[in-house]
Amino acid sequence: MPIGRPTKYTPELLKRAHEYVDGAWKEDDAVPMIVGLALHCDISKQRVYEWIKDDDKKEFRDIARRVEQMQERFLARGGLSNAFNANITKLLLSKHGYSDKQEIDHTTNGKNITQIQRVIVDTAAPNPNA
Fold first, then answer.
1. What is the mean pLDDT of the chain?
2. pLDDT, tens digit, for every residue of 47-102?
3. Nearest to residue 42, comparing CAs of 20, 58, 75?
4. By the 8 A CB rule, do 62 and 37 touch?
5. Where along the chain do its domains lie?
6. How far apart are the first and last CA of the chain?
7. How far apart are CA 89 and CA 24, in angstroms?
8. DSSP codes, 69-126
């Protein structure tokens, strides 16, 4: 007889997870989210992340990965079409590896240097070009 509480990882839970991915997320979420999957399956978000790492729960891992991929797609689409707030979209997309950064080279390393010369002109002197 197993010791401890019975697992919540059941065929019924997997069915609910599939329901979420197949469209139930639209009832409560603007985009598919891991926390939405957790709530729909009546488990904690931490449990979702534990199960993602568990080799005995590959089907659930695949569902969770699909939620993440769907989220990335909806965020990119919503951000590009201005359907979503740009700052929130940018923040959420950073979780998918997107970033908004500028590379500034503070050294020239001899590349494309434009020389700027400062010349002091004596306005009292005659203009040699005149």
1. 86
2. 999 999 999 999 999 999 999 999 999 999 999 999 999 888 988 898 898 887 76
3. 20
4. no
5. 11-94
6. 107
7. 22
8. HHHHHHHHHHHHTT-S-HHHHHHHHHTTT-----------TTSSPPP-------TTSP
